[in-house]
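Technical note accompanying the year-one report. For the benefit of new consortium partners, we illustrate the data format agreed upon in the data management plan: each record pairs a sequence with a structure-token string. No post-processing was applied to the example shown here.
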Amino acid sequence: EYRGLVKHTGGCHCGAVRFEVWASPDLHVFNCNCSICTKKQNRHFIVPASRFKLLKGAENLTTYTFNTHCAQHTFCKTCGVQSFYTPRSNPDGFGIAPHCLDEGTVNSIVLEDINGKEWEKAVKEHKTIRDMSKP
């Protein structure tokens, strides 16, 4: 257990992929306007890899990459839902889709727009994003 954090569970639409993640019940969610986040409406919060556990479905995941190939856009082969991924900004953590969490553990969501169209500049100027994947 992690002090001040709760265990959220979630997964894809068909249930083939399931995970648990320890995070605050009050989520800080990024709304990115880069090309892929815009196309798939990818809103996510960032956690350290040590606070994420894939419970089932590793064999049902596939990955899409582009440009720098740092971000690992994982999604379910069956239903196509991306419930989590490895963000370019935090390759040592995971970006979790809050809309893929099971009900009952989220108290609030604060949404922050991030200018992914100018990714390098936005991440360089952001004061906390790189630290969000640190334990």
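Partners are asked to follow this layout when depositing records. The first strand starts at residue 6 and ends at 11.
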